[in-house]
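User: Can you predict the 3D structure for this chain?
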Amino acid sequence: MARAAALASCLEAVLGSRSNANRVFEILELLAGQEEEDVLCAARTCSRLFGALLERRELFVGQLPAEEASLADNYSAEDKYKIWMRHRYNDCVDCLAELMGHDAFQVKELSLCTLMKFVELEAQYPLIKVEWKGSLTFPRELLKVVVDGLLPLNEDASLLISRFQEYMEYDDIRYFVIKAVTESIGQVMQKTKEKPLPFYQQNVFSLISPINMPNKECDVVRFMVKQDNWEELKVSKLQAHKQAFEKMWLSFLKHKLPTGLYKKVLVILHDSILPYMNEPTLMIDFLTVAYGIGGAISLLALNGLFILIHQHNLEYPDFFKKLYSLLDPSIYHVKYRARFFHLADLFLSSSHLPAYLVAAFIKRLSRLALTAPPEALLMVIPFICNLFRRHPACKVLVHRPNGPEGMSEDPYIMEEEEPSESRALESSLWEIQSLQNHYHPDVAKAAAVLNQSLSEIEDDISGLLELSGYELFDKEVKKKAVDVPLEFEQVRGLFGKKNDIFAEHFTLD
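Assistant: Here is the predicted structure, written as structure tokens:
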């Protein structure tokens, strides 16, 4: 309490008379101190002090001379004071930037909020000299200091970044943050020689992934501070926002990412990145490399590739061969199963696909279904039925009287990577016939559908894509049991057996 009172007295003295200007060192000394409470009090005092000086225009405007040079006679006493105080302001900013890496989150948060208050005030009362009409006076350098503080190399700053997200709702702040992040990525990643920096890259992703980009020119209206000629500047143009956004993501994705981060990027790519790029086709290289990696990363790359193929006429050689290779036992167990089958359904929807290709997909899905959980089977069996409806030529797999009855006689080559060489059309669906004896009655019932002629209307599988084992169990538990009439013989004797010696000597009465 005494410390707060002393700082309040110091603040009043500095703002009250220029003769007390040296007392600003008392505040800055505490700001650089070790005690958390002192640092917090000093930061609040600095916020009020330099906030007032900016509003009163008592800081030097323009290219700041060195402190020693300002002592020369060619500066007035007024200018000397303003130059000196501007240097103290810079000391304060440097100290606050350092405090964004403090151990205590409260100190980090207050430092961030104080710096952002200075950004707002500098935008209103620029410290940049206006050389010509229409020049930009936004404090980009100060905002770059904030962005660098949000992106440490060796620690997770996601909590502080989440606190910063409220400022990203302003169009001008978002635009200049995007520019600053692009610059930061170039400076930091260039030094690593393609070696991933997990903490730094995760922090960058935490900062840029929640960005809400405007959809239309008329949406670019919310600015922290508007200049007189704002409409003429790039920051008010949607095209400029998209260009900056595109450049930022391309610079981020051209460097090697940790596997976990790779997946996170691919999850949001199709709806949070591609729609806001001027040229989404620039993502072709990134997506084709991701699609070739295999496993879950390839599954997630499908979404972005689908958009580029469907909306931007991307030609991808051997696309279906790669899609076919993604069908492995894990496909029924991964958490991205619903997304994969939704996209596979879209890719296989064309009736112009050759019968051998569709037959290969049906056959491999059926073979893998032998070890799949019930919730996946209840989705994949209608999926296969829909493929038969779209491609009647494949029904030969169902109606083959003298076809193979088991794996040993099956001509289908499961290990073959090329669908055309898999001999799927020579096979039959004995796997689905096996599933008609499945332990789960719903699966057995679903598999039995192929014994009858299929209706022309496709099954809607959208409600089955997200089906989980928990939901199946819950459904079974909630089923109402029906009383079943049973024929039985009434128990006699101790063990209930007919003509048992125990029945002569013991009764249950």
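The longest helix spans residues 77-99. The mean pLDDT is 86.
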